[in-house]
Amino acid sequence: TIQYGAFSGCSNLTGDLVIPDNVKSIEMFAFENCSGFDGNLTLSENLTYINNFVFSGCSNLKGSLVIPDNVKSIGMYAFENCYGFTGDLKIPNNVTSIGDYAFNGCYGFTGDLKIPNSVTKIGESAFKNCYGFTGNLVIPDNVEYIGTSTFENCSGLDSLTIPNSVIRIYPYAFAGCTNLTT
Q: What pTM did the predictor assign?
């Protein structure tokens, strides 16, 4: 276990951030505002939950972000303002919930935003200001609510599929999604 706030604010750490497979949990704020990392983030395959605020403010991480297959939930603000990523975001099929503001401000992600069918809850502002995503966004069949500002300013998305399971779309859910045509 990496304890609560263990490396919080360590902004002069550089290079890749590798969480080895013997780590089974990372507590809140563990790497919050560690803005010095300037390489890839590799997460332990044994993580089952990405806690609240764990990587919030780690703004210089590069490349794609691959969430391990065992992760079932991504906490609130988990990757907020990690805007340095320059590749895909890969969310595995076991994830059932994405917390409020989980990827808010991660505007460097590119390509499609693929939310797996296992997801039943997408928190408010979860993908707000992630304008690097392009292509089609498909909301999973199990989602009933699309929260306030969930996809606000995801201006690169050009098509959207909302399933019949959605019974409420909250304010600003797709505000600023200027390229949506379908």
A: 0.95
